[in-house]
Amino acid sequence: MRAIVGLCVAVLLSCTWVSRSIAEQTSTWITQLPEETKASIIWYADHETGDLSQWDPPNCKYPGAGIFNTGGEEAIAEATDRVAHSGLFSVQATIRGAIRAQHGKRAVRLMRWTDRPWDQGGSHLPKSAYYSTWMFLPKPYNSKKYDPWDPGDGGWWNVFQFKAEDENDVSQPTWVLNIGHDDRNGQLSVGLYSPINSPRSILQTNPKSLPIGHWFHVEVFFLVDSKNDGEITVWQDGVKILHADQVKTAICSKNEHAVWGIGNYTDHITGGKTEGSCSIYFDDAAISTQRVSQTIH
Ligand SMILES: [Ca+2]
Questions:
Q1: Helix (H, G, I), strand (E, B), or coil: what is residue 191?
Q2: Distance 43 CA to ligand 1 centre (A)
Q3: What is this structure's pTM?
């Protein structure tokens, strides 16, 4: 009898420890932000639901968001516990078959254009806001294209983008954060590309390299304007790395709203297990009216 009681106590203690342990692990980065910063968050995804319902809410006719993949079974977005910035889960964005632009584009796109589903009283995202996410690159991927098979774009790898609808209500990219590869030292860094401005590319003068196998934070301030009064500023781990103002950030005054997304999108990449395959991770993504990376040092 004494042995049975002892066993029960041991099991109870063990259960208590497990539940506390999980609770501690699921206390996410966002819940630990300063109160004022936390109060400015319009929307976030920490993926602690263990699925992608924060990006693609079920049972909504008009979610104001969604997951848009290109490439059939060669583009997969899924929640994973393989790595997590905080809590237990992140989102894994995987593409395969992105080889020398010969098989077309492969894309995972996690997109938002409202603060909450239209069905639940959602509104367009504000005219200006901060868009952020933690990212994890497990390998030093390289999207650069080389002669003689470079079709002329030199390579691109879109991991964070803004879009807007044109006069015909067709969604088009406005500003893209690409990850580029420096062949001289093998380092990766973020650059901006905008097909609706001139010049189209803005690169860092002294590129801040991206870590491989470690989480890093990317935050963008985006002010929407279809004339030339828009603004975009990029911080990496709380350090300002890119900026443009007096630029176009929407295509037409009719659709002066931000559409934001993160993902894994290219037509050529190496550095993974096989040519054309690439998995990257995102966690603790947020839209806010205050800069969340002020707390990162
Ligand atoms: Ca998480």
A1: strand
A2: 14
A3: 0.90
Instruction: Output the CA 198–ligand 1 centroid distance in Å.
Output: 38
Q: 249 in the Ramachandran plot: left (φ > 0), alpha (ψ -120 to 50) or beta?
A: alpha
CATH number of the domain bearing residue 278: 2.60.120.200
For residue 128, give the amino acid letter.
S
Q: Rounded to the nearest whole angstrom, what is the distance from the C-alpha of residue 63 to the centroid of ligand 1?
A: 21
Residue 15 lies in a domain: no
Evaluate whether 30 touches 286 at the Cβ level (below 8 Å): yes
Segments forming the whole domain that contains residue 274? 30-295
CA of 29 to the centre of ligand 1 (A): 8
Reported as a single tens digit per residue, the pLDDT across 23-76 is 444 567 888 899 999 999 999 999 999 999 999 998 899 999 999 999 999 999
Give me the pLDDT at residue 23, please: 40
- Whether 8 is covered by a domain: the verdict is no
> Ligand 1 centroid to 47 CA: how many Å?
5
Q: How far is the CA of 88 from the centre of ligand 1 (A)?
A: 5
- Residue 92 Cα to ligand 1 middle (Å): 11
* CA 214 to ligand 1 centroid distance, Å: 15
CA of 78 from ligand 1 middle (Å) equals 13
What is the DSSP code string of 127-188?
SEEEEEEEEE-SS--B----TTT--SS----EEEEEEEE-TTS-EEEEEEEEEEE-TTT--E
Q: Which of 154, 110, 107, 135 is nearest to 265 (CA)?
A: 107
The average confidence (pLDDT) of the chain is 92
Q: Tell me: the pLDDT tens digits for 126-184? A: 999 999 999 999 999 999 999 999 999 999 999 999 999 999 999 999 999 999 999 99
Asked if residue 238 lies in contact with residue 132, where contact means CB atoms within 8 angstroms, the answer is no
Per-residue pLDDT reduced to its tens digit, 207-223: 999 999 999 999 999 99
